[in-house]
C-alpha cells in the first residue's frame, strides 16, 4: 500500500455516524462506542472508504464498530475537529457527521470484543464525549430532532 505524503498540519477528513433510536415514550437515545486505544466515548467514525459515498462509509463504520444498521441521512448533520492519536504523531481531523436512524442492532459484529457500546440519553452522551465540538453537535442535533 502506497503511503500518502501529507503536509505538516494538514487537516485530514473523516466520516462518522451518529446512531439514534426513538423509544416508545418518544424520547431519543444516542449510541456511543469507546475508541480502541484510549477507551474514550466517541461516535463510530473512520476514514473515507473508496467506492462508497461519505454517508455510506459512515453507515459502514457504525455497522463494524457497533453492529447497528438503519437509515443513514444523506445530508451532513454537522462536523467537528479533533486531534487523532496516530502511531508516532497526532493528526488534526475534521469529521463530517451523518445521522443514522437505527432499525436494529445485531447480536454480534466485527469489533464487538474491541469496544464498549452503550445507548445514552442525549445530554449524557454530550457530557461523556471529550471533543467539545462533538458535544455541541450532539446538543444541536437533539434540539433539531426533538422539535
- Tally of alpha and pi helices: 3
Q: Mind telling me the CATH class? A: Alpha Beta
Helix-strand topology string: EEEEHEEEEHH
Percent range for β-strand residues: 35-45%
Largest sheet: 8 strands, mixed
Helical content, roughly? Answer: 10-25%
What's the N-to-C terminus distance? 47 Å
Count of distinct strands:
8
What is the mean pLDDT? 88
Which second-level CATH architecture applies?
Alpha-Beta Complex
CATH superfamily: Nucleoside Triphosphate Pyrophosphohydrolase
What shape does the CA trace take?
A: globular
Radius of gyration, in Å, reads 15 Å
Low-pLDDT stretches are: none
Quickly give the structural class. Answer: alpha+beta
Structurally, how many domains make up the residues? 1
Task: Assign the CATH topology.
Answer: Nucleoside Triphosphate Pyrophosphohydrolase
Question: In summary, what is this structure?
Answer:
Pfam families: NUDIX (PF00293). The protein has 147 residues and is an alpha+beta fold.
Topology:
Blueprint: E1 12-22, E2 28-34, E3 41-42, E4 45-46, H1 54-66, E5 68-72, E6 78-85, E7 90-105, E8 117-120, H2 122-128, H3 132-146
Parallel strand pairs: 1-7
Antiparallel strand pairs: 1-2, 1-4, 2-3, 2-8, 5-7, 6-7
Helix pairs in contact: 2-3
Amino acid at each position: 500500500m502506497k503511503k500518502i505524503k501529507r503536509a505538516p498540519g494538514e487537516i485530514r477528513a473523516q466520516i462518522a455516524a451518529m446512531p439514534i433510536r426513538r423509544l416508545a415514550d418518544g424520547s431519543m437515545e444516542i449510541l456511543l462506542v469507546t475508541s480502541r486505544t484510549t477507551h474514550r466515548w466517541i461516535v463510530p467514525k473512520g476514514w473515507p472508504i473508496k467506492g462508497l459515498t461519505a454517508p455510506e462509509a459512515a453507515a459502514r463504520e457504525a455497522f463494524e464498530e457497533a453492529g447497528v444498521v438503519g437509515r443513514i441521512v444523506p445530508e451532513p448533520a454537522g462536523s467537528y475537529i479533533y486531534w487523532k492519536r496516530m502511531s508516532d504523531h497526532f493528526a488534526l481531523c475534521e469529521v463530517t457527521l451523518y445521522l443514522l436512524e437505527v432499525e436494529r442492532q445485531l447480536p454480534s459484529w466485527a469489533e464487538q470484543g474491541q469496544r464498549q457500546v452503550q445507548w445514552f440519553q442525549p445530554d449524557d452522551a454530550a457530557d461523556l464525549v471529550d471533543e467539545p465540538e462533538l458535544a455541541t453537535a450532539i446538543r444541536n442535533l437533539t434540539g433539531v430532532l426533538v422539535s
